[in-house]
Design goal:
By secondary structure, the protein is an alpha+beta fold. It is 20% helix and 42% strand. The protein is built from 6 helices and 18 strands. It is globular, with a radius of gyration of 18 Å. The termini are close together. The relative contact order is 0.19.
């Protein structure tokens, strides 16, 4: 039998019900593999992102791939990676998970039943959008902006966010990673609500997007006057992300559940 590599599928940023949150693949490698191989595995997994980890000193090198491209930052697959390392015993229960990535050092810590991750702020600036964005979303906006990765669109209400039926072919042409749509929440327990569309990166609608909350946290902090917030991402699966803004960093919190674990035979 050929050598095997452990792989996990973990639901990250889960809500209280089963089959919520964002499924991520987590592949723990004994040594570096080439980009083509990792991209092929991510395509085979066919999840929003698959994370690839290689031990490096007291931490791990971490890369993320959608089924079609490598991305520079991914929150849910980082949370899933930390969860898989702790649950499998590859990282001691009380140890901090340290990841070197294309976005610098990212860390994760256990805080009760939450995993908290320290990520960079991705602040937006107000800017007009290409007409294809609002046309593709099929809505009007109360605010539009852009951060280093995505467009952000605030709409008038939670019901508008939930009812969107985007034209994904049109959104795939807008020239950024994705489009964040958000509003204040009228649902008890949540400060804001969002959805995230990234057809240009091979993901029509991402179930729960940690990196989008690197923008949403400071965005709603400035509007609600709160440093600690709770967001709900209203995809069909749904998921909960807590956000604490600390200067130029954000602490993203969420729960994770392993859906399955297995082996790749290569």
């Amino acid at each position: 039998m050929s050598a095997s590599i452990p792989i996990y599928q973990v639901d990250a940023f889960v809500a209280e019900h089963q089959f919520s949150g964002n499924p991520a693949g987590v592949c723990v490698l004994p040594a570096e593999r080439d980009e083509g191989w990792m991209q092929s595995v991510a395509a085979e997994m066919n999840l929003a992102e698959t994370a690839f980890l290689v031990g490096n000193g007291d931490g791990y090198r971490l890369r993320w791939f959608t089924p079609s491209v490598e991305v520079d930052l991914c929150g849910h697959a980082t949370l899933a990676s930390a969860h898989a390392l702790w649950e499998s015993g590859q990282l001691a229960a009380g140890a901090q998970a340290k990841f070197m990535s294309k976005s610098g050092l990212l860390t994760a810590d256990r805080k009760g039943d939450l995993i908290e991750m320290n990520f960079p702020v991705l602040a937006e600036r107000q800017t007009p959008l290409p007409p294809e964005v609002l046309k593709g979303l099929g809505t009007t906006a109360t605010y539009t902006g852009r951060n280093p990765l995505d467009y952000i669109v605030e709409v008038e209400s939670e019901s508008v966010v939930r009812s969107l039926k985007p034209n994904y072919d049109l959104l795939a042409t807008v020239g950024v990673r994705g489009v964040i749509v958000t509003s204040r929440s009228t649902t008890k327990g949540f400060d804001f609500i969002s959805r995230f569309f990234a057809p240009g990166a091979g993901i029509n609608e991402d179930p729960v997007t940690g990196s989008a909350h690197c923008c949403l946290g400071p965005y709603w902090q400035s509007r609600l006057g709160k440093d600690s917030l709770v967001g709900y991402q209203a995809s069909p699966r749904g998921g909960i992300v807590s956000v604490r803004v600390e200067g130029e960093r954000v602490v993203l919190g969420g729960k994770a559940r392993t859906f399955f674990r297995g082996e790749l035979f290569m």
